[in-house]
Amino acid sequence: MQIVARYRMWGVPGSPEKTGVLLARLQAGAPPAPGGAEVQAVAVEGDTVVASIAYPLAWVEPRVTSLLIMTMSEVGHLPVRLEALELPEAFARKFPGPKLGVEGLRQRLGVWGRPLVMGILKGCLGWELKAVAQRFAELARGGCDLIKDDEVMADEPPGTVLRRLEACHSAAEQVCRETGRTVLYCSNLTGPPSTLLERAHQMVQEGAGGFFFNVVLYGYGLLQDLAADEAIDVPLVLHPGFLSLLSRGERSGIAPALLVGTLSRLAGGDVVIFPGPRGSFPWPQETGAAIHGALQQTAVHRRAWSAPAGGLRASMLPELLVVYGHDLVVNAGTAISTHPDGPQAGAQALAVATAVLAAGGALADAAQQHPVLRRALEDGG
Fold first, then answer.
1. 285, 371, 339: which is closest to 119 by C-alpha?
2. Would you state the pLDDT for residue 31?
3. pLDDT at 248
4. How many angstroms from the chain centroid is the CA of residue 369?
5. 212 pairs with which residues across the strands?
6. Which residues face 52 on adjacent strands?
7. Cα–Cα distance between 318 and 354 in angstroms, integer?
8. CA gap 259, 268 in Å, rounded
9. Which of 152, 212, 360, 376 could form a disulfide with 349 if both were Cys (CB 3.0 to 4.6 A apart)?
10. Eight-state DSSP code of residue 261
11. In this predicted structure, what is the pLDDT of residue 373?
């Protein structure tokens, strides 16, 4: 059995076939070992060469780290892009995949037939815990299904994360008593890597509804360990920080659909945040659609959620629902916190827009019926 990697190369001199062989030898070692890597196909596409190279399954551990070392550790220095990986089903089953995925998270929240709304505790760095909990409650009462830490909210001074968890968990329970709605608090999982599994266990016991995790900096291997741990029975929300360094080079790196989509789902991401088509740091719409297609695969593992983000506002939702459908997490921070009538109104505006559009309504009509949405749109989206 083999793992097949597809590469795209630029600036190839001479014969494409010879280039494919050289690529295989460079990545897998030269001279080639008996029964080792072999070139399956080579094709010229415009000014690029596309080569498919098969690696023996026996050479690779069922870890994302091992997969990428085997397929990219050497050629990653060249104008070469890893575009796809074909994995035998039995091998793919050794990865954890999403713990909850689309259906499991819907069941936990009791939300069906629409996208989810995720608010961010934006601008709360350095706040007193009482103020953070109040902001959490405002977002929850406004209609957020999930509320996560901002990525800059660290455990400093030590113990801050646990105290914030206690405060926000208490606020979530209060809102549930008031409204009957379940709202999950996704705490930033941060600290020395060697402590994160133990820390996650403790936080789950103390009420964590999910974890917000920077997969690039902490590693796909640690993500796999978190997802495979049965005691950590909460969704894992993946932060996109530094993804562009690995996947947005024009002629290098790893294709976003593979890294952000396929490998994030394989390793256990339930909700995968990545740059949307408009806003603060846009990625092309076709890139997001390709990532979404990879996250929505049903083979072997559960489907995962797409969360295109970065300056997202209510006015962008019609475009997003066309591409992503209902299996979308509407992830917003600034649009909520800067609403003219306050953060609770900001969350309500996004929640109303999401529900109306999911039901087939029009944003303009909804704005006439819901002043909170009209105010948001008049204020820039």
1. 339
2. 55
3. 72
4. 34
5. 188, 237
6. 6, 41
7. 9
8. 13
9. 376
10. I
11. 97
Q: Tell me the pairing of strands 184-188 and 210-214.
A: parallel
| Nearest residue to 214 via CA among 193, 194, 241 | 241
Predicted confidence at residue 3, as pLDDT, reads: 95
Q: In this structure, what token pair is assigned to residue 35?
A: 């029964």
Residue count (the chain): 381
Report phi then psi at 254, rounded to 5: -125, 130
CA distance 348 to 281: 25
Beta bridge partners of 48: 10, 45
Give residue 165's pLDDT: 97
φ, ψ for residue 332, nearest 5 deg: -145, 145
Give the pLDDT confidence score for residue 243 in this predicted structure.
78
In angstroms, the CA 325 to CA 328 distance is: 7
- What is the torsional sign of CA 165, 168, 173, 174? positive
pLDDT, averaged per 10 consecutive residues of the chain (381 residues), comes to 92 68 67 71 85 92 96 85 96 98 98 98 90 97 97 88 96 97 97 96 97 95 98 96 78 93 98 90 93 96 96 94 96 94 97 97 95 93 67
Closest to 32 measured CA to CA, from 57, 8, 54:
54
Q: CB of 271 within 8 A of CB of 329?
A: yes
Residue 2: strand, helix, or coil: strand
Looking at residue 250, its pLDDT comes to 73
In angstroms, the CA 162 to CA 37 distance is: 48
Helix or strand run (H / E) with residue 185: strand 184-188
Largest CA distance in the chain: 71
> What confidence score (pLDDT) does residue 13 get?
66
> Treating both helix axes as pointing N-terminal to C-terminal, what angle do 343-358 and 129-142 enclose, rounded to 10 degrees?
30
Torsion of CA 211, 284, 87, 45, to 10 degrees: -160
- pTM of the full predicted structure? 0.94
Question: Dihedral of the CA atoms 190, 260, 234, 96 (nearest 10)?
Answer: -110
